[in-house]
Amino acid sequence: MPAPLETCLSDLDCASSNSSSDLSSFLTDEEDCARLQPLASTSGLSVPARRSAPTISNVPGVPDEEQERRRRRGRARVRSEALLHSLRRSRRVKANDRERNRMHNLNAALDALRSVLPSFPDDTKLTKIETLRFAYNYIWALAETLRLADQGLPGGGARERLLPPQCAPCLPGPPSPASDAESWGSGTAASPCGTVASPLSDPSSPSASEDFTYGPGDPLFSFPGLPKDLLHTTPCFIPYH
DNA sequence: TAGGCCATCTGGTCCT
DNA sequence: AGGACCAGATGGCCTA
Questions:
Q1: I want to staple A2 with a disulfide (CB 3.0 to 4.6 A). Which of A20, A44, A66, A138 is the partner?
Q2: Does the pLDDT of residue A221 top 80, yes or no?
Q3: What is the value of pTM for the model shown?
């Protein structure tokens, strides 16, 4: 929704010379109003009715015509600056609105992602970055489970044992102690993803790299039906700052 | 009170 | 030209 004209003009620098922030401060004759109407209408602004021109005392020694020309030039410049500023302001307000909407959509998508991830027993809401890291690991773990199942390796029964994502509680225990997290390079116990130096590589062979700094006790690191030793090598490729 | 997380605003850049 | 996307700045709220 476009901001009202008053809002658009409220912070005009050039409006400071006028006591009013109303655009009508700059409109002094029918000609001006007529010229500004189409411009303003395209930007959703409204041009108020003209107001009478201010009374200006004569400057001695300068012809009346020249004084009038100067006054008109000055008013025209102020008007154009004000309109330009208000148009820019109007576009900014619209851009802000779109950006807000875009971020809301992004958050809705994150909420949708949270809803299909295993949830904590105490219903702790994952932060944005935790959600992304957790989702990454969860997908990797599921894929690895299917791979093991297809190979008939230990943990292969996990395909059948896997619970639906919403089947909380499936994440064991509180976050690991700080010492545990630190030993794995995590920033904090509650933020289990550590610094990742490697670019995304083949997720099927993550355990070889020392750069994957996840700890076995991390709550975002455990999934139902998966062998522990497998999960302990789950990578997090999302950089942690 | 410091730090983390978040929402919002903003200007720049890229794309259609 | 206008919209989408992005990153930096800022301020509010919450928690340890």
A1: A44
A2: no
A3: 0.55
